[in-house]
Write a structure and sequence with these properties.
The complex is a heterodimer.
Chain A lengths: L20 H25 L39 H5 L4 H5 L19 E6 H7 L4 H5 L6 E4 L5 E4 L11 E5 L2 E2 L1 E2 L4 E2 L11 E8 L3 H4 L6 E7 L7 E9 L2 E14 L2 E12 L3 E2 L9 E12 L5 E15 L7 E18 L2 E18 L8 E20 L3 E17 L5 E2 L3 E18 L2 E12 L3 E15 L2 E12 L3 H5 E4 L9 E4 L7 E14 L3 E19 L11 E23 L2 E16 L18 E11 L3 E10 L2 E3 L6 E3 L2 E11 L4 E8 L5 E2 L12 E4 L1 E9 L1
Chain B lengths: L1 H14 L11 H16 E2 L12 E6 L7 H6 L3 E2 L2 E8 L10 E4 L7 H8 L5 E4 L11 E6 L2 E6 L1 H6 L3 E2 L1 H6 L1 E2 L8
Classes of the chains: A mainly beta, B alpha/beta.
Chain lengths: 720, 183
């Protein structure tokens, strides 16, 4: 995704309701009071002890592992019927038991002691079985995300709405390092190429995460966690090719540097073919990228643990704005973390990282300004400290402090520029959270984050959460939180000059120095349960009250269609919705997963203000979305997985024409054969139902709008 | 719409029947039950830890039981050194005073310190899945790594109460030492 904003013009009006804030708070407050009253009275009747509480929503680190036991050559598949399980396992040796895979298709859901939030976890095994070949494809597995592929290298990903051009309300971290770009307040998905095999899990939280994660975690947080070097020992190689994913290869080697010091080094490369234009002709968006990196972890019985990891990447994508030319990107980063265990209930961690991202993209001529090349280099230096400890019997406290320094250097093009070209920014932050055990199965968590940034000064993001473990297998939670999205360089410093002399407009779209933070107050409730042996599920519902959303103000009396446009904060409104997710273990070897999201959006212009598209600029979201997946472990070590998804019509209005992306059904499938314990051959089909289909488009961009084609690829993966 | 959504939750809540207390018999707990059975075989208890030669070998489960029927099925008909295996469940330590192995459930996570000091130096093998249990003075704790069951083992705390752990068990677990300054 590249920062690009076209011309805008006023759209037709929409009638919208106002929501009384007092009424809403009263309703929600009443619900909370009812919840607590029921919980407290239930205590006197039923003394069910609940499972222990989860740790707070923390930036998770990869789990450590045992030394590899000598593995015997056992079948990777689950033994037959549940009732015979114990009789078979008790005859196994310890080494055989340690080789049994709990996370095969017949895995039971995690215990319910999880965080009081709408969190979904994508495991390494789910990623492998889905046939996903990139992080965005893997993110389709989270039911609470909207994932729309625009072209071969551009993805629009968001949670709970606002999946427009600038998906700016989702914070994404890889091993604790933020990959959210301050340039345009979004994520460049084409730069995030984590080797999927070495991902331990992806945690996807929908809902505001400002209290723990800071600004820009407005609608959600994605936390990609890679495995510790201790868990990636030995050689791993894979390679393959196909129709869209032309060819790819990954290599990794893990070993030990010293007793309890583990390392891995890896390299990955892929070359993706272009997608097609709406008329079926090939587009220009092919994409190739290489990345290499290392990771070192210390393990063992020490109270101190260290991690050091780094990577370098380089790639190019065919420019869709200037066909025939390439956008080039490269970067490197290094991160170190030290965790020290102080006592049974207390530990602290210190994390430092450096990240450099280089982008360069060709720009078209506009007005009298010639074409040129825009390039940007961003250096980020970040330090983060956290401490958890228990205070007495009932309080678990977490607090932390952080500092981030960014140096952004632009080489501005004649038609796309940010001023000042070099910009240094500092971000200070601190947070505190207390998880209070009101009763054994009723926990109340309250916390806040306070940040100071160079554009808007102090920002405060508090949150209160209540978790009630009704029974050991059912949990209810509710939360109220405030979150902010701070201005990006686009909002504040952008200039798109036309080069025209006065009195003609001097620019197309400009940022404003008075642009301030967008704010959200979110009210959420959720329920999670294991219903019997075979079914588990979760439901979340939310009501999000937004203020000061980004809007585009045209210039009055302008000679050309309202130019220049200015970015301001003139929108407000609310969204609400429901997210449902369920797992059904139909048979020991056959498992189903289903997810459904419902979303309503009511945004409008603040009374007395103006927006060029009347509040339709920020959203491109489906009202309904669902997915169904089936996973089968078949005889002869064969796995067969399929996934069907449905995405409702997208109203895409962030241009001068209102358009829609039609609703669609699509299907992915994967067939894999574990030839031996170490060798796996698979064939994956993606987007099988149509020759091509549209998932995203910019209104008015018809000639260059792209569709995603049906594709197939084969892969061989080998551990030794 | 918002009102309907909240009403839906009210309805859902009132329909929730309390769970009858049956724990899940997942593959994970069937495996852990087998591990407990193996621990019983690979650890030596001092001879005076049984009241007499016919006393059963007791595996006690303290807290909200996650094993369901899996543990009984695993130990049915088995013996350790001619003591037949039994399983006892309780919410209080006092009810498990004759057990050789005590499994501390996740529900007791916040009371681990108390539990371990109540056991003191009696020859009891303490096992749990509570995070860092072994580091905090317990003997063995389970964790999952890459989808497989693993265990950490604290040889010092086991030795302190007179248990002898076979070197085979030590070689398969991850050895941890107690946190400095902890129990």
């Amino acid at each position: 995704m590249k920062p690009s904003l076209g011309c805008l013009s006023v759209n037709s009006k929409l009638g919208l309701k106002r929501h009384g804030r007092a009424g809403r708070i009263a309703w929600f407050g009443g619900f909370i009071v009812w919840l607590m009253a029921t919980a407290l009275s239930a205590q006197t009747i039923q003394l069910t002890n609940a499972p222990s509480q989860s740790p707070p929503l923390m930036p998770s680190q990869a789990p450590t592992s045992a030394d590899n036991a000598e593995a015997s050559t056992t079948n990777a598949l689950a033994p037959s019927a549940n009732a015979e399980g114990p009789n078979i396992y008790k005859t196994m040796s310890l080494t055989e038991l340690m080789d049994q895979d709990v996370t095969s298709v017949s895995k039971e859901p995690e215990p319910l002691g999880e965080a009081p939030a709408a969190i979904q976890v994508i495991t390494n095994d789910e990623i492998r079985r889905s046939g996903a070949s990139s992080v965005p494809e893997a993110l389709r597995l989270a039911d609470n995300l909207e994932v729309a592929q625009e072209n071969a290298y551009t993805w629009h990903i968001s949670a709970r709405g606002f999946n427009s051009d600038l998906s700016d309300k989702l914070l994404v971290l890889i091993d604790g390092r933020t990959v959210y770009s301050p340039l345009d307040a979004g994520v460049f998905w084409d730069l995030q190429n984590v080797m999927l095999e070495d991902i331990d899990r992806i945690e996807v939280i929908s809902g505001p995460g400002g209290t723990l994660w800071g600004a820009n975690a407005v609608n959600g947080v994605i936390n990609i966690i890679t495995k510790s070097a201790e868990d990636t020992q030995g050689w791993y190689m894979d390679g393959g090719g196909g129709t869209e994913l032309r060819d790819f290869g990954d290599v990794r080697y893990g070993g030990t540097l010293a007793p309890n010091v583990y390392f891995r080094v890896y390299g990955t490369y892929f070359d993706r073919n272009n997608e097609v234009l709406a008329n079926g002709a090939p587009a220009q968006d092919d994409w190739s990228q290489g990345q290499g990196g290392f990771r070192i972890d210390t393990g063992g019985p020490s109270d101190d643990k260290f991690t050091l990891q780094g990577e370098y990447y380089n790639g190019a994508t065919g420019s869709t704005a200037v066909p025939g030319k390439d956008d080039v990107q490269s970067g490197d980063n290094v991160l170190g973390r030290w965790t020290h265990t102080l006592s049974a209930d207390s530990d602290m961690s210190l994390q430092l990282y450096y990240d450099r991202t280089n982008l360069s993209q060709p720009e078209l001529a506009v007005g009298f300004e010639p074409a040129g090349i825009f390039s940007d280099s961003l250096d980020t230096y970040d330090a983060d400290f956290q401490h958890h400890f228990s205070l007495g019997d009932r309080n678990k406290i977490t607090w932390g402090a952080g500092y981030r320094f960014t140096h952004d250097q632009n080489n501005n093009a004649p038609t796309l520029a940010f001023y000042p070209a070099p910009l240094n920014q500092s971000l200070f932050s601190t947070f505190g959270q207390d998880e209070i055990e009101l009763l054994k199965n009723l926990h109340f968590t309250i916390g806040t984050k306070v940040e100071h940034n160079d554009y808007t000064g102090f920002e405060v993001e508090p949150s209160a959460r209540l978790q009630w473990n009704v029974t050991p297998t059912q949990m209810l939670w509710a939360a109220v939180s405030r979150a902010v999205r701070t201005p990006s360089r686009i909002d504040h410093d952008l200039e798109e000059p036309t080069g025209l002399p006065k009195p003609f407009p001097s620019g197309v779209i400009d940022g404003t120095t008075s642009f301030t933070s967008e704010t959200l107050i979110a009210y959420e409730v959720g329920y999670r349960a294991q219903l019997g042996n075979k079914v588990s599920g979760s439901v979340s519902a939310y009501y999000n009250d937004y203020n000061k959303l980004q809007s585009v103000t045209p210039t009055a009396n302008s000679l050309i269609g309202g130019l220049p446009f200015y970015l301001e904060n003139n929108l407000e409104g609310a969204t609400d919705g429901v997210e449902v997710s369920a797992d059904y273990q139909m048979l020991d070897w056959w498992r189903w997963h289903a997810g459904y999201d419902f979303l309503q959006e009511n945004l409008h212009v603040k009374p007395g203000e103006v927006d060029a598209t009347n509040g339709l600029n920020d959203t491109a979201d489906p009202k309904h979305q669902f997915s169904i997946r089936s996973s089968m472990d078949l005889p002869q070590n064969i796995e067969f997985d399929t996934g069907l998804r449905y995405v409702d019509t997208l109203p895409t209005n962030d241009g001068h024409i209102a358009e829609t992306v039609p609703s669609y059904f699509e299907l992915d499938a994967r067939l894999a054969w574990h030839v031996t314990k170490d060798l796996e051959i698979s064939i994956v089909g993606q987007n099988l139902l149509h020759d091509q289909h549209t998932e995203y488009l910019y209104p008015g961009s018809s000639p260059t709008q792209e569709d995603i084609v049906r594709s197939v690829y084969g892969k061989i993966a080998w551990h030794f | 719409m918002r009102r309907q959504v909240f009403l839906l939750f009210v309805v859902l809540l009132s329909c929730i029947a309390p769970d009858p207390g049956h724990a899940q018999e997942s593959k994970e707990y069937q495996l852990k039950a087998a591990f407990l059975f193996n621990f019983a075989q690979f650890v030596k208890w001092p001879t005076d830890s049984f009241t007499d030669a016919d006393a059963p070998f007791c595996i006690g489960i303290l807290g909200d039981d996650p094993f369901g029927a899996a543990l009984e099925e695993t130990v049915r008909g088995e013996t350790i050194n001619n003591h037949r295996l039994t399983v006892v469940r309780a919410q209080r330590m006092e009810d498990l005073k004759d057990c050789q192995i005590i499994f501390v459930c996740r529900s007791e996570e916040d009371h681990v310190g108390e539990i371990l000091s109540q056991i003191g130096t009696r020859p009891v093998l303490t096992v749990s899945e509570v995070d860092s249990f072994a580091r905090n003075g317990g003997d063995i704790d389970f964790y999952l790594s890459d989808g497989k069951v693993r265990f950490e083992i604290n040889p010092q705390s086991a030795q302190r109460c007179g248990l002898r752990i076979s070197s085979q068990l030590l070689s398969l677990g991850k050895i941890v030492k107690p946190i400095s300054g902890g129990n």
